[in-house]
Amino acid sequence: MHQNPESQNALQNGAAVTSFLPHRFSVAPMLDWTDRHCRYFLRQLSRHALLYTEMVTTGAIIHGKGDYLAYSEEEHPVALQLGGSDPQQLAHCARLAEERGYDEVNLNVGCPSDRVQNGRFGACLMGEAQLVADCVKAMRDVVSIPVTVKTRIGIDDQDSYAFLCDFVGTVAEQGGCETFIIHARKAWLSGLSPKENREVPPLDYPRVYQLKRDFPQLTMSINGGIKSLEEAQAHLQHMDGVMVGREAYQNPGIMAAVDRVIFGTTGPDADPAATVRAMYPYIEQELSRGTYLGHITRHMLGLFQGVPGARQWRRHLSENAHKPGAGIQVVEQALAKVVRDR
């Protein structure tokens, strides 16, 4: 486990389990968004937030031709989110993740997309609590890093509080899961797109708070619709952790104050312009490996939200980063449009 200073202090003081401290603030796994370039960028804004990979299926890891576990050492603490429902395959992938140095393995029991259901993983697994418990136990049996579960508060018409408690209780008691991230919406497995499932089912924060009260021995983070650090602080009055998704991606500037506001560190907040410059060595290295500039800068477009020149920053990157041969000068030119206006 890669410990930050807070973790080490907590360990010395006999406080919370070290591996759970990063859950105080995490960035959600988001398909097509939280790739390794995105995570490296977000790490420049916060040293301590826990970063999650996109969901990676067991099939991709076991049978795919690419390296689906690639990441940079600078990303720690970083968690791998797995999609799957076969205990042996999940155990195999969890072992690979630990060997590669990941700090946590997370099982996706929340994604409602059709292709996920067809593969028998994601939110549909809420209806199979014993199978989820078996999956978690199989992974826990072969790794020493935390194995966690990200889930919803219900699926379709199975959305009673009793159903949620039964699911969490089974996975905790039969599977040994100690940490749950709860998206405070239920999922409709048919009739709604994945995007609609992130917006249409109403948020029910009080239900998640109650779940934490009823399972005080478990570590629980809340997820869904959180748009500011002030909101995060309010949730932390009830929960062990907060997971932020789209807001951290579309407005990454909010990450600049996470270490101070959420983790209580001293020192200045991350400066957005300095953050861009801190990316230059990484960008140069990736370009030398054949990575397209736009694959990196697409994650940085929202950094200056609300700052004069932000539109010009976005436009310059959007129009130029994808061009053949685009290099670091494109980023420098875009940054000059913001810095000039400050």
TrEMBL record:
Binding site for FMN: 29-31, 81, 150, 183, 223-225, 245-246
Residue stretches making up the DUS-like FMN-binding domain: 27-335
Keywords, in A-Z order: Flavoprotein, FMN, NADP, Nucleotide-binding, Oxidoreductase, RNA-binding, tRNA processing, tRNA-binding
CDD domains, sorted: DUS_like_FMN
Recorded GO MF terms: flavin adenine dinucleotide binding; FMN binding; tRNA binding; tRNA-dihydrouridine20 synthase activity; tRNA-dihydrouridine20a synthase activity
Enzyme class: oxidoreductase
Cofactor(s) required for function per UniProt: FMN
Site (Interacts with tRNA): 108, 195, 198, 311, 314
Catalytic activities: 5,6-dihydrouridine(20a) in tRNA + NADP(+) = uridine(20a) in tRNA + NADPH + H(+); 5,6-dihydrouridine(20) in tRNA + NADP(+) = uridine(20) in tRNA + NADPH + H(+); 5,6-dihydrouridine(20a) in tRNA + NAD(+) = uridine(20a) in tRNA + NADH + H(+); 5,6-dihydrouridine(20) in tRNA + NAD(+) = uridine(20) in tRNA + NADH + H(+)
Pfam families, per the entry: Dus
PROSITE patterns hit by this protein: UPF0034 (PS01136)
Role played: Catalyzes the synthesis of 5,6-dihydrouridine (D), a modified base found in the D-loop of most tRNAs, via the reduction of the C5-C6 double bond in target uridines. Specifically modifies U20 and U20a in tRNAs.
NCBIfam families noted in UniProt: PRK11815.1 (NF008774), yjbN (TIGR00742)
Family indicated by similarity: Belongs to the dus family. Belongs to the Dus family. DusA subfamily.
Name the record gives this protein: tRNA-dihydrouridine(20/20a) synthase
Taxonomic lineage of the native organism: Bacteria, Pseudomonadati, Pseudomonadota, Gammaproteobacteria, Enterobacterales
